[in-house]
Records
---
Amino acid sequence: MSKTNKTTLPKALESGPEMTQAEVLSRAALSPSINAVTVIKSYQGNLMGPEVDFNVMVDGLRETVKDVKGGDLSNLEGMLVCQATALQTMFTSLARRAERQEHLKQFNTFMVLALKAQAQSRATISALVELKHPKQATFVQQANIAHGPQQVNNGQPPRGAPAPTHAEETKTHPPELLEEHHGERLDTRATSKASGDDPHMETVATINRPQVARGQGEGGTKR
């Protein structure tokens, strides 16, 4: 098994003197800092040129990770501020280019890109504010408010809790209207005469009314 040739691999990829090149590359493939620098280096060519040092970039990124783990977020805050400013610059440039277009299609294209840059700038600023002033978690207990009968079931009572009383088990029923009870209506009219089909069902007061003269009480004599 051949040992790692230190001259063929960047310093940042070295993990141990007894590791093979395949083992070093396999570990590097799982390293967040090395993966990030690989992507950064591929996009930095048109900015800093090909002379960007891979090892220095990995070391700098690892220092940033170490600071974040220790609670120092100043580097991330600076990055968000710079990104929001760059996105705002992109929005301004694209909006100005859209204004100079003579055809509607080109105007819409530049305006869509400009508004996307603006939205990303706003989202970056929101992330920065959340990083500087994180929201506090708020726990609100349930409040049951109702104007009238209400039954709320919040699950089964805990084990060992006393059983609910008879009053708690009783359900409250809304008052029923008399006119809605089996289709019957409350009859407020005067008593009508009994039908001639059944004379036995005549009004009791009409058949059994005592013959008491005016001015005499019940069981009294006429003056």
---
Amino acid sequence: MQNLLEENVKAIVQDRYAKIATNDQPISCCGTSKTVPQNKIYNIMMDDYTGTDGYLAEADLGLGCGLPTQFAQINPGNTVIDLGSGAGNDCFVARHEVGPTGKVIGVDFTPAMIQKARANAEKLGFNNVEFREGDIDNLPISSNLADVVVSNCVLNLVPNKPKVMGEMFRVLKPGGHFSVSDIVLVGKLPAALQQDAEMYAGCVAGASQKEDYLNTIEGAGFTDVVIQKTKPISLPTDLLQKYLSEDEIAAFTTGSTGIFSITVFGKKPADRMSPAQPVLTPISQNSCCS
């Protein structure tokens, strides 16, 4: 039953992000709004990449909630993995940091996103950025490969977060580290927000409690876990009106419940070599840069 539920949630998320990938317009990770301009909505979640080295506007679909690459301590020659790479935005920023001697691998389970990312990489002529189709809770990547793992507003969409954290740990080299931006909660969301499928695919309802999220990271074996940045998220009233009564909106916006974007850093201990694991998910042979 649990596996069926997880697959249903994945199908909801995949369908929504496939539509975003083929729309060619930025769409908020918390959904669109009829009364508020679209760019105002998605800016509620995302941080501004303008001026960031390696930034490609065509690869920025407005789906992030932070700037993990800014905090990821990426060095020239590193191998970086981006979980939920979308159209390639964070991969291209990471490529600037790793330089010509490094490598960036983006993983996404939405074929339309992979196609869009590969097209962007081909246009730029990048030969050290690769995009692989696969689930981030079953990464198509060998163990002990990456120096750095990044992700931007993706882990909150995955039902089985401990499994994703375990995969992050597995693919990192001993002594490697991650920097992940994600949505977390403090307090309990109203039931209508928590249960609605659109809100799940929109980053909020699938979010963990902040304390649980950090405990899951440490439970996967990571050390030196620290929050690098915290940003409160305020959902617009017109969006809340889709789910809540006026009284419920008032209680939600004035109560102790909070929605936050956090960027978290953690290390894989230098003495922890993960067991070798075969890559079970086939890698497409038509990768733009393989």
